[in-house]
Structures
1.
Amino acid sequence: MERDEVYVPKTREDLRIPDCPSQEIDWDDVLGDTPIYTLLMLIRQQLLAFPAYLLYNVSGQKSYPKWTNHFSPNSILFTKEQRNAVLMSNIGMIATLYIVVYASFAYGFGTVLKFYGIPWLALNHWFTMITYLQHTDMHLPHYRGRAWTFQRGAASTADRNFLGWQGRFFLHDVAHYHVIHHFFPKMPFYHGAEATRYLKAFIGDHYVRYDTPVFQALWRTYNDCQFVDNEGDILFYRNKKGKAARSAKKD
């Protein structure tokens, strides 16, 4: 929990849920939403969560300073060696913004929206969907304090059969072989399939992979993964009824 960089689970306290037995809580009153509202909030997440994370550290590490973002070269997110790279990135984004504004005047806002704006939103959707499903699931553990180790943290993610062969070809296996990236972040993506075979054999049941259709998984995950408890070293998400799919004591 203290070492997660993004998709940090909300706690009972964050959602102001009483820390008392589940049967004493009116869960429909606390977390109940209509399906259409849930869908609208999911669409908002898919289109805007990535820029919100870059700008305001939304869903990021809660221990970071209030104004943490990905554009300040002095941000806690970056090392001193990365400062110049952040500055160059900012210059590139300013140049891109200038080109977009210029193109809007030259060719019309509708044209720029069609050829740039909508594809940009689609990029946000795919990027958010892939990373969200890689790091969020009822069965994936989250660790606090001394319960965390590098190996445990690295294994707390999932590979997914993302759009079959299309996902492998167009997305360069980014979703199919993500667990290995946690263990070896500098390894080239084209070694993912081979390296995953060895990793799976080595860590056994600690390796997680799902073949659930990704849009079905997205809807189910967004509805089920609501919060974790305030206390405990090994945590699992609880759903809108306050129930967890796994228990640290049993596993």
2.
Amino acid sequence: MKGLEEVKLIGTWLCPFGYRVIWALKLKGVEYGYVEEDLSNNSEMLLKYNPVHKEIPVLVHGGRAIAESTVILEYIEETWPNNPLLPINPFDKAQARAFVNVFHTVGEEQVKATKKAKEVLRVIEEGALGGENKFFNGSKIGLIDIVFGWLAGWLPIFEEVNGLKLLDHNSFPNIRV
């Protein structure tokens, strides 16, 4: 049974994308081992499981590696179906994946990315987090919450380093970081 094989996560405490995987594994109740990677000196394990890109996070399940945080999240969702991270309804599921995809690809050029990020935040503000919703999928945490979860800790740093302001309470009162 593939769900019962050994699970390891290769990451580093600095990587917000690794936290996505950690949160998903914890929400699913999956036991896993964590391997802290030294990015200044790639380990044999990282070179073995992600030899081309040499990037983290990498999920190793039963000796087979999956890289790229959103791909890993999809794998976790399909491998451990308990406590679903995606809605059951196919349309809602497609919408959740679209939110994840749009936000995941915004980081190319700062001006375009800032404009696109604000457009995405506006859609999230007006649609997904409108009303009494605590999470994107209503009252239960899901895949979109996990993908956006890194914002709380890293967005203020990102804004300061890049000299821009994405979130302010007046423009996005339902989004809290």
3.
Amino acid sequence: MTSFMINEHVGRDVHEDWRYDGGCSFCRIIAKELPSAVLYETDEVVAILDILPLRPGHTLVIPKVHIPHVTDLPADIAAATGVAVSKVGKAVSEAMQNTALNIVCNQEYAQSVPHVHFHIIPAPQLGGSPRLDATRAIIPRTRRELHQLEYEGRSELDEDEGRELAERIRAKL
């Protein structure tokens, strides 16, 4: 019975509610209404640099259909997104010369844009994170304190820095 139901959906158009949400910043980026540093794009997904990165190379992989919950992604979109996360993650890793990555997808909790997206974030390297203020006298004692310092240390992506990072990452794709 399940295969019959699945077969009924093969080739079916994407539901109208999932196509575009004019109030969603990611939908507006996908529609080219807002600027972004596009690293990778297929018919199903786009990868862009985060405009408020935790660290240099912080990238977002976003399905082009507007779906708020990862648990609601159709299998084909989930598969295309997974392929993109792997491919773009490898390029970010090579471009940043850092094989340690955090790959995160939030659902509702800590999800700042209600449109499925995966963060690919190069992990801090030995010697400290380039986004932390080295002049601070506070040395984090816990992982929570480290995360708080990283959050407080975020700043908007510089346009020139973004172009240079995007070129380095695209060269690895």
